[in-house]
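tool_call predict_complex ligand=calcium ion
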Amino acid sequence: MRILIIEDEDKLAKALRKGLEADQFLVSVARTGEDGFFLASTEPHDLIILDLMLPQRDGMEVLSALRQKGVSIPVLILTSRDTVSDRVQGLDAGADDYLVKPFAFPELLARIRAILRRGKPESGDKLRLADLEMDTAGRTVCREGKEVSLTAREFNLLEYLLRQQGTVVSREMLARDVWQETARYTPLDNVIDVHIAHLRRKIDEPFRRKLLHTVRGVGFVLREETD
Ligand code: CA
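tool_result ok
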């Protein structure tokens, strides 16, 4: 497992490297936001530990730039900024976790392990609900054993709904997690509704059992209803 530390405080960077290496991680260190961004976008890593106050390009900028580029490596923010709005901003920008300095090393390790566990697909590459089946590796979808052809966006939308099956997801969640739209005020609701309608036409309308349901005023849910 390779971890990239983006941290300009020399002492802390060294201590982190030592601790993580002792725990069998392979560690690289970047001392500026620019170097960090470069390493994160050119070399494979399993996790990034990101400081926010950095020379050249601050951590939040690095994170947004990476997410915009489609780099989905999990990011744990490690910072002395500890207000609620700092945390919300960091998580909204696509961080997976947030730990405030000073911190206890065992806690950092526990959080790293939790993030790495989360990243693993739960049951191979197949997602399933009733007779609806998705192969996330092959990017195919079947219902009643027949292949259904979806656009890339419809596929991502369905994958998200399948992973959250049984849970009502709001349009905000879809905007953030499927469209990666973090600017909260971009009106995406119509776009989302149109994609939901297309998806429903393909995966639900030709079939007797309906799986995709609208929950008025809240959002959508993929589930098998018992009648
Ligand atoms: Ca710093």
